[in-house]
Specification:
The protein has 162 residues and is mainly α. It folds into two domains: 2-38, no CATH class; 55-157, Cytochrome c-like domain (Cytochrome Bc1 Complex, Chain D, domain 2), CATH 1.10.760. It contains six helices and no strands.
Length: 162
Amino acid sequence: MIRELSRRREPKGSRWAGFHSTMRSGWFLGALAITVCACGYDPPPEPAVPGSSDPLSYGNDVYEQNCIGCHGDKGQGKENEAPAVIGRGALPADPPKGAKTRKGRFEKAGDVATFIKAEMPPLNPGSLNDREALAVTLYLLREGGAKIPALDEKYRTVAIPR
């Protein structure tokens, strides 16, 4: 049917006179758009952490917005409320005795980020996305003395300073 429409000629002055050439142009532009999309236009990569090309400064922002109320401005924690998350003794490998939320071990940054994403903040657990959880984890670890590698997936394997 498309071939029939494209071959068909209407008399000049007919209300359909330009319709067939317009249809051919429309089909061509549609096919061109599909070809361009199918060829794999890759948009520029987004930063590893949204809002910043520096995940550590972004982690600081996430910490200030979500963590500072319980864990304090320097990550020192609050007695009988929230543990220290920065500094000596923070983020121990095994959960402290009597821990209400934490049940698993913290071996690497990925363990901490997984816990933060699932369980923090306590009044709205699961509200942080993967990038926010990883950014705040890296911020905590850097503040605690860990050496943070260049931007890449090796973040999850950063060792926790003890």
